[in-house]
Design brief:
The complex is a heterodimer of chains A (515) and B (277). With 515 residues, chain A is α/β, with parallel strands linked by helices. Chain A is built from 22 helices and 16 strands. Chain A has a 5-stranded parallel sheet. In chain A, strands 6-14-7-8-9 form a 5-stranded parallel sheet. In chain A, strands 10, 11, 12 and 13 form a 4-stranded antiparallel sheet that branches. In chain A, helix 18 links the parallel strand 8 and strand 9. Chain A is globular, with a radius of gyration of 25 Å. Chain B is α/β, with parallel strands linked by helices and 277 residues long. Chain B folds into 2 domains: 88 residues, Elongation Factor Tu (Ef-tu), domain 3; 157 residues, 3-Layer(aba) Sandwich (Rossmann fold). Helices cover 31% and strands 32% of the residues of chain B. Chain B has 9 helices and 16 strands. In chain B, the strands form 3 sheets. In chain B, strands 6-1-2-5-4-3-7 form a 7-stranded antiparallel sheet, with helices on both faces. The chains are: A alpha/beta (515), B alpha/beta (277).
Chain lengths: 515, 277
C-alpha cells in the first residue's frame, strides 16, 4: 500500500475512540469467538419464491461479529478490496454501535455498499487476506455480511447520508452503461465536482445488477435506492440511449463531453456450437435471466413470455449458471440440473452459491458434457445427449482438463436448456469507433494502471475490458478510471492555461484563435 | 417517452404511426430498426423504421395487428406516448451502384424496404419493385414505392389488385426479361425463403432483411440467433441483412413460433378483457 494511505490509516486507527474500543476486549477473547453464520430462509420455502435467501444480521449479531476483528495495526484485509474500503474503521464503527457512521465510512470509497455486501466474492478478497485466514487459520471476520448490515441499516433507517459533493467544475463527462463500472465511476466523478451523465441502452438503470442477478440474491429495490442516491447527488441518467447507435462518441464530444467511460459490459452470449442448439426452449443464460429479472416474464401480468420447463438443464458451473438453475427451480422445474464438464472442485461459482443451490434441490451432473440436442415435431427441445468426462492433466488455467470418456454417452429428457458457458464483450462501441484498439477477443485494450484506451479521452472498465468478471472488479476499474480521467482532464486544462500565459495582448489571443 | 404525432390506417389491421424520436431520426439509415416497449408491463418488440423526417424529428413505423403487443400499439392515438423507443439498431444496408436491383416486399415488410429502395435509387441503380400481399387492402406504400422505383409490379394472392399470384411469380417475370444484378427481399420468413430459392436458381446475389424475436436488441441475449452458412449469427448485431442463400429459413420459421402457444393464450385473454370493457 501507498505510504500516504498507510499514514492515513494509522492516524484513523490512533483516534481515541478506536484505542478505547480496542482496549475494551483482549485480542485473545476476540479471537476465541466463533464466526456467526448468515441467517438464511429455509431451502424448502425459498425455492418456490423470490424472497432474498440471506436474511442479514441482527444488530446484536453484527456487534458480536465486529468484536471478532482485532483492529490490526497492519490491516491486510484492505489489500484484498478492489475499491479500497477502510475495513477496520467501518467494522469498529459497528462494534461501537454507530451503524450510520459505518455506512458513511463505506460510502467514502464504495458507491454501492448494499450491492457489494451481497454479491462480492469476499472469500477470495478481503476475507481471504484477513488476519484470521492468513495467520490464525480460522474463519475470517464476516466482512461482507457486516458491509451488508451497515448499508441495509442505513437504508432502513431512512437517514441516508448523501456524501459531500465538491463544488461544481462544470466539466461534462459521460459513462456509457449503467452497470457496476458506470455507477462506481459516476459516484466518484460527481464527488469530484464533475457534471456526470450516464447513458443506458435498456429501459432500466443498473445493467447486470438488474437484468442478470436475480431478486433472491440482489433485490431490485436495493439497486434502485443506490441509483436514487446518485441522482440526488446530481448524476443524470438517460435510458434508451445506445452510444454508438443513437449517437456516437463524436456526437457527444460535440455536445461538450470532455471524456468518456465505456462500461458497456459483456455482450454476446457464447454457445457450444453443437447440433440442435437453436431448437425452441434453448436459451442463453443472458436471455433467460433477462426475460425473468428485467421483463418479469414469470409473472402472467407481464406481456413477455418465457418457457418455464419441468426438466431444465443448465450448462456451465459459474455464478450465472447457479442463478439460472435456481431461478428455473423457483418458477416450477421438477428437475433442475447443472451440467458441468469438470468436477465440483473446479467450479468457478462461489461456494455459497453452490451450497445454496444444493440445499434447494438442484441436481449436479458434474463431469458431464452435452454433445447434442433433439426436438419434437414442433422443433421444441425434448432430449439431450450427454457424454461423461474424467479429469486429465492441468491446463493453462491450472485446472485439470476434462477428457471425454468414449462410449459413455447417454440421453436424458429436457424441455428447457440454458447455456451458460460465457460471454464475449459487447461489439457496439468498437464497431462504431474504428480508431479504438481492441483485442482479438473483442475487449477494449487499456493501460491497466489508468484504464485509458488508445483514444485519449476514452477510458474503459469492467467486462468490456476483462471479458467476464465480477461486479466488484468492474467497480474497482470504474473508480480507477475516474481517478485517472480526473488527472487527464486537469492536465489538459493546465496545458491550455499555460498557453494563455503566453498571451500579452488581445491581439495575441485573436491571432492564436485564427490559427 | 415518445409522443405519437400522426396516425393513418392502411387497412383494418395495418397502421402507420409517426412518432417523435429526434436522436433516432437523425442517426437512422436504411436497414435500421427500433425496439419499443409499451407500458411498464409491456414486452420489447423490434419494429423496422419506414421513414424519418429530420426536420420534424420524427420516425415512421408500420404495425400489423398480429398479437397483443402489436394490437396495443396499433390502438394508440395521436398524442399518446410509447413508453420506450430505442435505436436505431442493426447495421445499415450497404448501398452501392450495382446496376439493376430487384426489390421484393411482402406485407408490412414493404415498410423497411422503402428506405432501402430509396437509397439504392439515389445511388444510381435501376429499381424494379415487386409488392405482394394476400389482397388489395394489404398492399401498402405503393405510391411512395413508385416515387423511388423505375417500375412497380403489384401481386395479390386473390387477384383483387395488380396481377394474381405470388411475389415469386412477379419476380420471375422480370428475371426472365432482363439482367438483375441484385435482389433484396423483406417480408414474412416464408416468403423470403421462396424468394431465396428462386434467385438461387438464377444465381442472383440476394439480401434478406430478417425480423426475429428479440429482447434487448444490442447483442446481449441471443434470442434472435439464426444459422447463416452453418454458423450461428445474431440478427441484432450481425444483421438484420444476410445473404439470403445462406440463411436457414426453416430454422428461423421454427424459432419465430417459439412462443406461439403463449401468444395465442395471451390473445384470447386480451380479447375477453376487451369485450368486457
Amino acid at each position: 500500500m501507498d505510504s500516504s494511505i498507510l499514514a492515513y490509516l494509522k492516524k484513523e486507527r490512533d483516534k481515541e475512540w478506536r484505542v478505547e474500543l480496542r482496549n475494551k476486549l483482549k485480542a485473545k477473547d476476540r479471537t476465541s469467538m466463533d464466526r456467526l453464520d448468515m441467517p438464511e430462509e429455509e431451502p424448502g420455502f425459498r425455492n418456490k419464491n423470490y424472497v432474498e435467501v440471506n436474511k442479514g444480521l441482527s444488530e446484536e449479531q453484527a456487534i458480536h461479529e465486529a468484536q471478532r476483528c482485532i483492529d490490526c495495526a497492519n490491516p491486510t484485509c484492505i489489500e484484498g478490496c478492489p475499491v479500497g474500503i477502510n475495513i477496520p474503521k467501518f467494522v469498529k464503527k459497528i462494534e461501537a454501535g454507530d451503524f450510520l457512521g459505518a455506512a458513511k465510512t463505506l460510502k467514502e470509497t464504495n458507491a454501492l455498499p448494499a450491492v457489494c455486501g451481497r454479491v462480492c466474492p469476499q472469500e477470495v478478497q478481503c476475507e481471504q487476506t484477513c488476519f484470521y485466514t492468513q495467520k490464525l487459520k480460522k474463519p475470517p471476520v464476516a466482512i461482507g455480511n457486516l458491509e451488508r448490515f451497515a448499508a441495509d441499516y442505513e437504508r432502513n433507517s431512512g437517514k441516508i447520508s448523501i456524501p459531500e459533493v465538491g463544488s461544481r467544475n462544470g466539466i461534462k463527462v459521460a459513462s456509457v452503461g449503467s452497470g457496476p463500472a458506470g455507477l462506481a465511476f459516476a459516484g466518484d466523478m460527481i464527488k469530484m465536482g464533475y457534471d456526470v451523465t450516464v447513458f443506458e441502452a435498456l429501459h432500466e438503470i443498473g445493467g447486470v445488477l438488474k437484468y442478470g442477478i436475480p431478486e433472491f440474491r440482489l433485490p431490485n429495490k436495493v439497486v434502485d435506492i443506490e441509483v436514487e442516491n446518485l441522482k440526488q447527488k446530481g448524476v443524470k441518467f438517460i435510458t434508451n440511449y445506445i452510444v454508438g447507435k443513437t449517437g456516437t462518441i463524436e456526437d457527444l464530444r460535440k455536445q461538450g463531453f470532455a471524456a468518456f467511460l465505456i462500461g458497456s459490459g459483456a455482450g454476446l452470449p457464447s454457445f457450444m456450437n453443437i447440433p440442435g442448439e437453436n431448437f425452441i426452449g434453448i436459451y442463453s443464460s443472458n436471455e433467460y435471466l433477462t426475460r425473468i429479472n428485467l421483463m418479469n416474464a414469470a409473472d402472467p401480468e407481464y406481456d413477455t413470455p418465457v418457457i418455464s420447463g419441468k426438466y431444465v438443464a443448465v450448462i456451465g458451473g459459474g455464478n450465472t449458471a447457479m442463478d439460472s438453475v435456481r431461478t428455473a427451480k423457483r418458477i416450477g422445474a421438477k428437475r433442475a440440473m447443472i451440467i458441468y464438464r469438470r468436477s465440483i472442485e473446479e467450479m468457478p461459482a462461489r461456494d455459497e452459491e453452490i451450497k445454496h443451490a444444493q440445499e434447494e434441490g438442484i441436481e449436479f451432473l458434474n463431469l458431464n458434457n452435452p454433445i447434442e440436442y433433439f426436438a419434437d415435431e414442433k422443433g421444441r427441445v425434448n432430449k439431450m445427449k450427454i457424454q461423461k468426462m474424467r479429469l486429465g492433466e492441468p491446463d493453462d488455467s491450472g485446472r485439470r482438463r476434462p477428457v471425454p470418456i468414449e462410449g459413455s454417452e447417454y440421453t436424458i429428457d429436457v424441455d428447457t436448456v440454458i447455456v451458460s458457458v460465457g460471454v464475449s464483450p459487447n461489439p457496439l462501441i468498437p464497431q462504431s469507433m474504428k480508431e479504438l484498439d481492441v483485442s482479438s477477443w473483442g475487449t477494449i485494450k487499456v493501460n491497466k494502471d489508468t484504464m485509458q484506451s488508445s483514444v485519449p479521452d476514452v477510458f474503459a472498465a469492467g467486462d468490456i475490458v476483462r471479458g467476464g468478471a465480477t461486479v466488484i472488479l468492474a467497480m474497482g476499474d470504474g473508480r480507477k478510471a475516474a481517478a485517472s480521467m480526473d488527472r487527464y482532464i486537469k492536465d489538459k486544462v493546465r496545458s491550455i492555461l499555460s498557453l494563455v500565459k503566453e498571451f500579452n495582448t488581445i491581439g495575441d489571443i485573436l491571432s492564436f484563435a485564427n490559427k | 417517452m415518445n409522443r405519437i404525432v400522426e396516425k393513418e390506417y392502411f387497412s383494418e389491421s395495418v397502421v402507420k404511426l409517426v412518432l417523435e424520436a429526434p436522436e433516432i431520426a437523425k442517426s437512422r439509415k436504411a436497414g435500421h430498426f427500433v425496439i419499443t416497449r409499451l407500458g411498464k408491463k409491456g414486452e420489447r418488440i423490434p419494429l423496422t423504421i419506414a421513414e424519418a423526417d429530420i426536420e420534424k424529428w420524427t420516425i415512421t413505423i408500420i404495425i400489423q395487428k398480429v398479437g397483443v403487443s402489436s394490437i396495443k400499439l396499433a390502438n394508440l392515438e395521436v398524442g399518446d406516448n410509447i413508453t420506450d423507443v430505442v435505436g436505431p439498431l442493426g447495421n445499415p444496408t450497404h448501398i452501392e451502384k450495382v446496376g439493376t436491383v430487384l426489390a421484393s416486399g411482402g406485407g408490412v415488410g414493404v415498410a423497411p424496404l422503402l428506405p432501402i429502395v430509396e437509397a439504392f435509387k439515389n445511388a444510381g441503380n435501376k429499381i424494379i419493385t415487386v409488392l405482394a400481399a394476400r389482397k388489395k387492402e394489404l398492399i401498402i406504400l405503393e405510391e411512395q414505392m413508385r416515387n423511388h422505383s423505375d417500375e412497380v409490379i403489384v401481386m395479390t394472392d386473390d387477384g383483387s389488385y395488380g396481377k394474381k399470384g405470388l411475389v415469386t411469380h412477379g419476380m420471375e417475370e422480370v428475371i426472365k426479361r432482363e439482367k438483375v444484378d441484385l435482389a433484396i427481399t423483406v417480408g414474412p420468413a416464408i416468403m423470403m425463403k421462396y424468394v431465396a430459392l428462386l434467385t438461387k436458381e438464377y444465381n442472383i446475389p440476394t439480401l434478406a432483411s430478417l425480423n426475429t424475436i428479440m429482447v434487448d436488441g444490442t447483442g446481449m441475449c441471443g434470442a434472435c440467433r439464426i444459422t447463416v452458412g452453418g454458423k450461428t449469427k445474431f440478427v441484432c448485431v450481425d444483421g438484420p441483412e444476410f445473404d439470403a442463400h445462406q440463411v436457414d429459413f426453416d430454422e428461423m420459421l421454427n424459432r419465430l413460433n417459439a412462443y406461439k402457444h403463449y401468444e395465442d393464450k395471451a390473445y384470447r385473454t386480451f380479447l375477453n378483457k376487451y369485450r368486457k370493457a
